[in-house]
Fold:
Amino acid sequence: MSSNKPDNSTFTAKLVRQKTIVYDLRLPGFNGVVEFFILEVEPSKRKNFLRDREAGKIKRLTDYGTILHSGDGEPSPELKAELTEKYGMYEE
Structure:
């Protein structure tokens, strides 16, 4: 018997992707190595984040949201795949 109900896992995933604002940032680290930060920006702070990023005035990423992942260099292929699935990042 077939159901007319929508696939909740797909529906929920789409809602999460639409409401979540996540950025992949590259910043110079203290040791001279470029570091990546995956930042989930709070929707109410998005305008300020974009303005401050453009002006080079960001001092603490946590003023704008939550750091989900960080590390030296580039995110791993596995992390990129996870972020693509969860947030739609890195899709062209």
The longest strand covers residues 21-28. The chain has one domain: 21-87.
